[in-house]
Amino acid sequence: MKSGLKQSHWIIIALLAAVAVAYALLIFVPQRAAIAEIRTELANKRQYVAQGGVLDARLKAVQQELDATNAYNAKSRAAAPTNKGLSSLFERISELVKSTGATTTRFDPEPAVPHEKITQITLSIGLTGSFPQILAFLSSLERLSPRVWVESVRLDAPPKDSEPMKGELSVAIFINNSDDSDYINRAE
């Protein structure tokens, strides 16, 4: 009877071992790969959610920068002269030269270069005078409203100290052409 009991134990142990091996090979190993895929997917989704907070902060910073840029552009457009105000601006520039004691030798507006919202007009100015007079004109020109961009300055030293200095300036003036422009504000 003891040998029959031992034999039945071995059969039960063998059956349990076979079931354990079958479970490991048929269920656990395939499921382990699926579990690994689910863990990888879960880690990717957690990383995506974690980046959401960083992206939100970046998006807010970019939006603030865009708002500041739009405000600056609106302010610049409001300050820019129109075609109608261009002649009065030329008159003010001419008066600035006279007020410093310098003399205008050339005053040539170049052809307008249109852009989406503004038009650029380059103005070439030639003048003669002492260095302090020309410097005073440049200083007054830079403080002029609406703003003008001094693109280039060339000063020629006089051959003799008693002769006036000659200067050439290239000035960019931007005028507002929003009434004439077919540009659509895509930010709105």
Low-confidence stretches: 180-188
Question: In angstroms, what separates the terminal alpha carbons?
Answer: 95 Å
* Share of residues in helices: 55-70%
Q: What is the radius of gyration computed over CA atoms, rounded to a whole number of angstroms?
A: 40 Å
CATH class of the largest domain reads Alpha Beta
What would you note in describing this structure?
By secondary structure, the chain is of the alpha+beta class. It folds into 2 domains: 1-79; 83-176, Alpha-Beta Plaits (2-Layer Sandwich). It is built from 3 helices and 5 strands. The chain has helices spanning 2-79, 83-100, 131-142; strands spanning 103-109, 113-114, 118-129, 149-156, 165-176. Strands 1, 2, 3, 4 and 5 form a 5-stranded antiparallel β-sheet that branches. Helix 2 packs antiparallel against helix 3 (131-142). The longest helix has 78 residues, at 2-79. The protein is rod-shaped and about 130 Å long. Residues 180-188 have low confidence and may be disordered.
Short description:
By secondary structure, the chain is α+β, with helices and mostly antiparallel strands. The protein is 57% helix and 22% strand. It has two domains: 1-79; 83-176, Ribosomal protein S6/Translation elongation factor EF1B (Alpha-Beta Plaits), CATH 3.30.70.60.
